[in-house]
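Repro:
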Amino acid sequence: MFSSFPTFPNTLVHYLERLDEIFKVEYEGQQHCFRTVHSKEGGSGLKREITILQRCSHLHIIPIRGVVVNDNSKVEEMLTELIPNAITLDRVDFTHFTKEQCDTWISQIRSGVQYLHGKRLVWGDAKPANILIHPNTDLVLVDFAGGATEEWVDYEKMNSQEGDIEALDRIEQFLQRKIVVGGSNIK
């Protein structure tokens, strides 16, 4: 399925720490993020995410490092870049950020989604919980396994470019509300 992609034997991947639905792992002295992808329809979510990330090289899309295989060479999971101390956008304390920072985030999210759409790819389950904020305040889009969360994407638009655009608009509104409510330092 992913023969041209770096593979990591699961027996050599050492678990270091659980971070929500992901794990911090080590392989040959390097730390990675071990992404547990929920098995949708017999693993199609994992296959979808790997296929999308293999085709992407963008500053605001999480880079994939390879796939984790079992003793039978079956792909079980994937490794992505580890972003130490990252927080998801839905958990940000907005009192520490300005409107300009939120505008930058909106621009970065749009840039990532435009890149995907230019490659005829779809993010899918677009929502603040699937956006990681670096400690340097840049962000990356994560979770390309597909699906939809109704608050962010109407189910009939699930896994479509139209659904991604709808989610972008809702994420922008979310950020605008948060910065007005939480940002006492807003100018």
